[in-house]
Specification:
Elements: H1 2-13, H2 16-34, H3 41-44, H4 50-68, H5 73-78, H6 81-85, H7 91-110, H8 114-123, H9 132-157, H10 163-184, H11 194-200, H12 202-210, H13 216-240
Length: 241
């Protein structure tokens, strides 16, 4: 499993796609946080990163599908998947290796954004006047969100040999998982079940963790969601195998 993980990670890092994708993510998030009038924290006037953490999930809907779209799609298109499954390694280990390799790249994209926390902490009056607990909770929420979106991306990549189609499917599923249940709960016929429907969506649990409170129910939700899509991937790839 480690050999597949290392091969997958180095394959990402040896291509320009990972660097370009992460670079665009950091550029856009930086512009939204510091320069664009409607979202700039300098215009907002408060030492907090709530605006940043509310914007990143939408950037993740494009960043993570771009990272994961090649996981299985490229293997099958180039014919190397047949070689991979003949190795003495179980299918779930292959899936886990590709999943964790993609998740490491998501983590690489998040780590540079810590400079935003440092900068705002220094700009605060008095210096250091920022809710560290809320920031830590929000970063944990972002990591769990990234883990869930990565599982969706791996699943989407297992459905097709075309990376573009995998990207589109993954982005659509991520958007629905994050926003779809909230919009569905607003349908008149479903309003009486609004609370139950919104609890099925990621947004509700991400917002809860972003407040700085780690609820066991939210952690169980994200772990279960991730495992569910990895199981879907195993079922798809197992059938094709």
């Amino acid at each position: 499993m480690y050999a597949v993980f290392k091969r997958e990670l180095f394959s990402f890092l040896s291509s320009m796609v990972a660097y370009i994708t992460i670079g665009i993510f950091l550029l856009v998030s930086g512009l939204l946080l510091w320069f664009f009038p409607d979202t700039s924290i300098l215009d907002y006037g408060y030492a907090e990163l709530s605006g940043f953490f509310s914007l990143v999930p939408y950037l993740f809907m494009f960043l993570i599908p771009a990272i994961t779209m090649r996981s299985f799609a490229e293997e099958r298109r180039e014919g190397t998947y047949e070689l991979l499954i003949t190795r003495p390694i179980k299918l779930w280990q292959i899936i886990a290796a590709k999943y964790f390799a993609s998740l490491v790249l998501v983590l690489f994209a998040l780590i540079p954004t810590l400079i935003y926390y440092y900068s705002i902490s220094k700009l605060g009056f008095p210096e250091g006047n920022i809710d560290a607990g809320a920031v830590i909770g929000s970063y944990i929420g972002l990591f769990l969100l990234g883990a869930s979106f990565t599982a969706i991306g791996i699943f989407a990549s297992s459905l097709t040999k075309n990376q573009v189609i995998a990207f589109v499917i993954s982005a659509g599923l991520c958007a629905f998982a994050f926003l779809g249940f909230d919009y569905s709960s607003q349908v008149i016929a479903l309003q009486q079940y609004e609370s139950s429907i919104t609890n099925l969506g990621i947004n509700q649990h991400y917002t809860s963790i972003s407040r700085g409170v780690l609820d066991t129910r939210d952690l169980i939700y994200f772990i279960s969601f991730t495992m569910l899509f990895l199981l879907f991937t195993k079922l798809v790839m197992g059938g094709k195998r």
